[in-house]
Structure formats: C-alpha cells, structure tokens
Amino acid sequence: MISTYSIVGCDLEAGEWGVAVQSRFLAVGAAVPAAEPHVGAIATQAWATLSYRPRGLELLREGRSAEEVVRALVAADEGRSHRQVGVVDSHGRGATYTGSDCLEWAGGTTGPGYTAQGNILVSAETVNALAETFEASAAAPLQERLLRCLAAAQLAGGDRRGQQSASLLVVERDGGYAGLSDVLVDLRVDDHARPVEELERLYGIHQQLFGVTPRDEWLEVGDELRTELLERLGRLGYDGELVAALFAWAGTENLEERVEGAEWIDPVVLEELRRQS
C-alpha cells in the first residue's frame, strides 16, 4: 500500500505539468506519477493501481476534464474504495478522489493548476501545506514549486509512518535533454532517511548540469578570458583550439548542454572550470 502525499500541478504559461511525491514506501517514483505535456498529469496512490496512469493519460488525450477522468477511472474500478488519485488536465483543472477505505488521515484538495492529496498522514495539515505552498509560489518555476511543496508538507507532519522515498517528475514539450525529450526533470530517491532533502540535493546537481542561464548573463570571451580558459583547460589535459577543448572538457563533466561555441561562456561553466583547475 502506497501511503504517501503528492502534489500534481502545472504551469500553463510555461507548458509544463508535473508531480512531486513522498512516501514511507520503497521507490515511490516508480509507481505514483505520470505526466505528458499539453495532456496532463496524474498521481495514483493508497492501494494504488498503476493502470490509472496509462488509462488516465489516454482519457486526457481525448479531451476529458480532470473531473471526468477521475470519475471514469473510479467507476471502472471495483477496488475504488481503497484508491486515491489526483489529476490535472491540459487546462489546469484539478480533481482528486479518496476512497472510503483509505487509512486515516486521508483526503485531498484542489485549486487553480493543482491537486494535493495524501493518505496515512499525521493530519490534514500535510495536504494543506501542499496547497498553500503551491499557491504562494506562483512566480517560481514549476519544479521548484513542487519541491517547496514537499518540504512544507514534511514540516507539517508528512506521512504518519515516516519517510523513505520521494520523486519529482516535470514534463515540457521538447524541454528535456538536447531538446529531444519531453522529460524536463525526472529525479527519484528510492530509499533514504531524509528523501525530500536528498531530492533537493539531486535537483541542485540537475540544475547545474542542465539548467539554463539567461543569455544576457553569459560572459563575453575576450583575449584575457580566452587565455585563462586555454591555460585552465590545458592543466586538465585538454589542449588545442578553444572550442574543441572546451567542448571536450564539458562533455566529460556532463556540462555540454551549457556550452555553445567559445565567443561567450556560461558563468556556471566558468565557475566549474575554475574550481577544477
């Protein structure tokens, strides 16, 4: 049984949908979340049935509202009294369902662009913290909002049985690696004493490698900086023409997404190169 709390949300302006979840359950990210850009996102939990994920996305693709999807999933499920599910559709409408046999405390709430739910929680304050934090953080990127929600919910009490795993899934059309994937963020902590904190640490690494620094913050590579870059790359064993040396080093360090030629340099790349050399 997946006793957990989750937040399903979207940022319509950015074209992003996502799910963040924490549970006293091994590898919760493998079971609870599903999302598809411009379609919607789903969290299935309690005595979860994983079939809710593909079936729910299929219904969302047909243009069904979140409320219609939840009703359809539950109506076709003989084990509905043990289920909990949250859905956000392509228009940002949220719907949640908690079966009558889910273990206390269990329930959910919805608002503009999100749905929050949980079961076997310390109290309703866990779900309230999810909702309040999402609503209060509208200016932040979706993935950061969802992480803040998990942290606030844990501080409010969290899962009554404790902590074990957490995950963050956010999708955006062509927003993933090299623009060839719709998966913007997919991070999982499968077994950890403080999974939300560990998820935040992993997200920090993810942002260092794959985050986007605004172009107006990039540094122009003049003669002095060019000389520095060549010297530092050379000390690390990357000799030759700057573009090739810089890209070879960046590829080794998984920073290639932050390198584009050698006329300008991302300050994140420069900082890491200076740290290493």
Topology:
Elements: E1 4-11, E2 16-23, E3 33-36, E4 40-46, H1 52-61, H2 66-75, E5 83-89, E6 94-98, E7 107-111, E8 114-118, H3 125-136, H4 142-155, E9 165-172, E10 183-189, H5 195-210, E11 219-220, H6 223-235, H7 242-252, E12 264-265, H8 267-276
Antiparallel strand pairs: 1-2, 1-8, 2-9, 3-4, 4-5, 5-6, 7-8, 9-10, 11-12
Question: What labels would you give this structure?
Answer:
Glutamine Phosphoribosylpyrophosphate, subunit 1, domain 1, 4-stranded antiparallel beta sheet, alpha+beta, 6-stranded antiparallel beta sheet, 25% strand, single chain, 2 domains, 277 residues
Give the averaged pLDDT, no decimals. 96
Question: Which regions contain 5 or more consecutive residues with pLDDT less than 50?
Answer: none
N-to-C CA distance = 50 Å
CATH topology of the largest domain: Glutamine Phosphoribosylpyrophosphate, subunit 1, domain 1
Q: Count the helices. How many?
A: 8
Taken together, the total number of domains comes to: 2
CATH top-level class of the largest domain: Alpha Beta
Radius of gyration: 21 Å
Strand count, sense and barrel status of the largest sheet are: 6 strands, antiparallel
State the CATH superfamily name of the largest domain: Aminohydrolase, N-terminal nucleophile (Ntn) domain
- Please identify the oligomeric state: single chain
